[in-house]
Write a structure and sequence with these properties.
Largest sheet: 8 strands, mixed
CATH superfamily: 2,3-Dihydroxybiphenyl 1,2-Dioxygenase, domain 1
Strand content: 35-45%
CATH class: Alpha Beta
Order of helices and strands: EHEEEHEEEEHEEEHEEEE
Helix content: 10-25%
Number of helices: 4
Structural class: alpha/beta
Strand order of the largest sheet: 5-6-7-4-8-11-10-9
């Protein structure tokens, strides 16, 4: 089983990004930062999700992100799936904070249960096969719409159709240039949508 060791976000202002993520989410080594001036416009083709245990934690983390400088793309709200909200960090990365719980069982703890990287892809079936060829194992699959891979690492991986992922994030699907993300895992390769994986150890640069 192949897994993700860490997500490396490429940011224009490293010091500012370090301050934001420390204040907003307090993530550990699963999130790393490095400076880059690669051009990018519009939707970068991915989102990062923080899965928490109850609505109070969704509200607390969204509030902390906004206080740290994030922009709200979708305010916290209740749905048939639970509770969730979407924010965009100052560096441009889109974060969704969500829970499947409908009610609180106690005060907010700020604890993050799972980090999920969702890639918005052109052809889910083709990209799924690419990851199978790299040694990934499918945990859930819904035809050409969505795929979730099994993972033993700190970050989970899923594939979603690009337009559907953009709609879920509350943004237009159009975008070009660098994804501004590198995935640290067991091997080095680039998938059909241009997402780069690095098998080389990367020192922790932030957050």
């Amino acid at each position: 089983m192949t897994s993700i060791d860490a997500i490396i976000l490429e940011v224009a202002d490293l010091a500012a990004a370090e301050r934001f993520y420390a204040k907003a989410f307090g993530l550990g080594p699963q999130l790393r930062l490095r400076e880059s001036q690669e051009p990018t416009t519009g939707f970068r083709g991915f989102t990062l999700s923080l899965v928490v245990s109850q609505p109070a934690d969704v509200k607390a983390l969204v509030g902390a992100a906004v206080d740290a400088g994030a922009t709200v793309l979708k305010p916290v709200s209740k749905s048939i799936w639970g509770w969730g909200g979407v924010v965009q960090a100052p560096d441009g990365t889109i974060w969704k904070i969500a829970t499947s719980a409908k009610k609180d069982t106690g005060p907010a703890t700020g604890q993050i249960d799972d980090v999920v990287l969702l890639l918005g892809v052109t052809d889910v079936a083709a990209t799924k096969q690419c990851y199978l060829d790299q040694g990934f194992t499918v945990e859930k699959s819904f035809g050409r719409m969505y795929v979730q891979f099994a993972s033993s690492g700190p970050v989970k991986l899923g594939l979603y159709r690009r337009k559907a992922l953009a709609k879920d994030a509350g943004v237009s699907p159009e975008g070009s240039g660098s994804h501004r993300i590198v995935v640290s895992g067991a091997t080095s390769f680039t998938d059909p949508d241009g997402f780069a994986w690095s098998g080389q150890p990367v020192g922790q640069l932030g957050a």
